[in-house]
Design a protein that fits this description.
This protein is mainly beta and 106 residues long. It contains one helix and seven strands. The strands form two sheets. A four-stranded antiparallel sheet has the order 2-1-5-6, with no helix packed on it. The longest helix is centred in the first third of the chain and has 13 residues.
Length: 106
């Protein structure tokens, strides 16, 4: 079967998916703290989102997880963690690969 999905359609899917991420909620010792998305890298069909914690007030606290949220506060992705923040910054990364597939209906 010939390629039904063209590269432009895949580009649209990546762009659309990327546009929905607004901020992160990070679980720090049981408290949800809002953080901005620090950086986004789009490479081909891959989207990487980074959240950076440089706060000195969270040193020594346990980072239990992070979620990426949309602008209405709905969860789009979750990542479980279990680390204690040291005196340096802490970078949380999320990676998404966009794939579309067409199945023939007979």
């Amino acid at each position: 079967m010939a390629d039904v999905i063209q590269p432009l359609m895949l580009d649209y899917a990546v762009t659309d998916a990327d546009s929905h991420f607004d901020h992160a909620l990070v679980n720090i010792s049981g408290e949800l703290v809002k953080y901005p998305i620090h950086n986004t890298v789009i490479s081909g069909r891959s989207i990487r989102k980074y959240v950076f914690l440089d706060d000195t007030e969270v040193i020594g606290k346990q980072i239990l997880g992070a979620s990426l949220m949309d602008d209405q506060g709905r969860t789009l992705a979750n990542q479980a963690l279990n680390v204690v923040k040291n005196d340096r910054g802490f970078l949380i990364g999320f990676e998404f690969t966009i794939k579309l597939e067409v199945k023939a209906v007979v």
